[in-house]
Model the fold of this input.
Amino acid sequence: MVVSVRRGRQGQRGNIALNRFFLDFGLWIFYRYPDFRILKRKGNMSVKYKYIILLGDGMSDRPIPELAGRTPLEAAATPHMDRVASGGIVGLARTIPQGMALGSDVANLSVLGYDPARVYTGRSPIEAAGMGVDLGPDDVAFRCNLVTLGSMGGGTDLADGPVDPQWVMVDFAGGHPSNEEGRSLVASLSEHIAGSGIEFHPGVSYRHLMVWRNGMDELDVAPPHDLTDNPIGEGWPKGDASERVLDIMRRSVEIFAHHPVNRLRRDAGKAPVNSVWLWGQGRRPNLPLFADRYGLQGAMITAVDLLRGLGACLGFELIQVPGATGYLDTNYRGKADAALEALGRVDLVYLHVEAPDEAGHGGNLNDKLAAIEAFDGKVVGPVLQGLGRLGAHRVLVMPDHATPLEIKTHSGDPVPFAALDSESGTAGSGVEYTENSAAGTGLMIDRGHELMGRFIRGELWNRPTDPGAEI
Ligand SMILES: [Zn+2]
Done:
């Protein structure tokens, strides 16, 4: 931009324009880059932080009798997370606002610094973003599970005709069909059902996407995993969209009954995929990009579609790590290395590890301890070591939500977080990273989505020290 400054009256006008320009530019910098404010306040213009969030999905838990009343986080050896806690700030955050669904999508939105109560529109539109499927403002995305239903007699050969509320949800994952089987079944849906605004997009195994362009989203329907072994009537679709949804289900039963994939599955002694289940619907969420909101370029490392989708919605670079599975055998070290490498070009990395959550859902204590120790030893440890070479940094360690072994599903309990600032110069908490120690510090962030901003702006380290202070 060229600003001309001339003498005389014209010159005065020029000066006013110039002052105006610098005032506007200053205000723009001030709001666009919250970091600028921190650096200014600290009087150290040269500090440019790198940020990393190390997220152990579902790793917090409740006291376990087999562990003499300790939690898995207390019982597991976690020297690296303890180092973050002891040298940093520890507290609790409520990542699932009261009354909202206890989902990873809701919880991770909070951790990423977005208020789910304001921005969450459903699970499927986030997954659609992760699959690269664009939604217009009037389009509705539905998760399309390939499922196995059982008839009244217990068989899986369903009769043609209307969908029966007494049919039972035998397997919400349709016997985990291969990607090839899933694609073949979804291709038949595209051939016979798509049209009049309905589209099918193949995903992975039993998890696919249906889009209804200019569609209806008023649908109250249970997630299929909540109906396992129960009559589907207990989660029966209701609402304006239910007529169309039930018609698509009925036609999927017809199409799948004689599908070559199912002939082969029956021959191999496997249960057939005999219906779709449509759920998790919603319109495109209106999410401001992370860079616009926090002034930082981010990258997402995860093996899970939903987290990739969140990353895509927020404008993150999506990093694929070979061997990242979402299970206990995931490539932990590859994720840590990819994160450190990414921090060479972006400001913030969100590194998500699914394994502790899987162990929690399985109710398997040993798996959960192993997943937590692997996360600590193979992700947190190497990342902390590598960060030393990258200069000033802030590290946040936390789960998105608890997945207590006792209930084998997510809970809405507030979760412990630990945050370390390499430059803070303040004394750390001195405590280990556990649910109890986090509760003991008295720091409770009830609106969990506020944690991210306070972490990025460095405000966690400037809080009043009185216990019980809520920020
Ligand atoms: Zn989760």
About this structure: The radius of gyration is 25 Å. The pocket of zinc ion is lined by residues 57-58, 104, 107, 357, 400-401 (CB under 6 Å). Residues 1-11, 34-45, 464-471 have pLDDT under 50 and may be disordered. The longest strand covers residues 140-150.
